[in-house]
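Onboarding guide, step 5: your first structure request.
Type a short instruction followed by the sequence, for example:

Predict the 3D structure of this protein.
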Amino acid sequence: MEFLTSDFALFLLIGFAAQIVDGALGMAFGVLATSSLLAMGVPPATASAMTHVTECFTTAASGTSHALHRNVDWKLVRRLAPAGMIGGALGAFLLSNIDGSVIEPFISVYLIGIGVFILWKALRPLRQRKMHDRAVPFIGSIGGFLDAIGGGGWGPMVTSTLVGRGHDIKKVIGSTNLTEFMVTLVISATFIASLGWAELSSAAGLIVGGVLAAPLGAFVLKKVPVKPLMVAVACVIIATAGLRLI
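The system replies with structure tokens like these:
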């Protein structure tokens, strides 16, 4: 298709911008990339497939960068990853057989609520919570499932929920970025097994842009103070979820 071969530079810019946001805030690559591709006229199934295949590369680069910057809590990763991978595989399988757009409005309403909650938390003293929080595996499984169903959402679901529950924001962002690689790999493999491999070479521009931007996100995270970062997280969630809801 023409739009899949003539817009490499635009795909690169989309991937770069979305990954800067995702790497710095721990969320929104899938939401921003998928929304941008849909606005360009890319069919929904192709947009979702392109986004997830791209995230296999961007999350690997971003997760490695966060690990090098010591933004990762490995205990949190071990608790999130298995649940997220299982949830993601189930979501991808279901999306291959049903219309995932039916539940998108409910996801958007939830994300707006989470964004408002984090914004409220940013204006109050932070209360740190131990990483043995029993809800972590459940949050991971739901985040993986909804990410696959909605074409994106691991970051907004998992990062925002863990931050809202009081976990350290920088450790959460670094850990969810690294964990997202494992979850996205499983989701992509499930999509390919269920739908076949088609038209995914067009994701090259997204991949190049995202990988180039991945190290910059971790650097921004390490330098930005916590409270302004929380405000930025909340604004990104409310804006992206609001646009999808509309």
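Each response can be followed by summary notes, for example: The mean pLDDT is 78.
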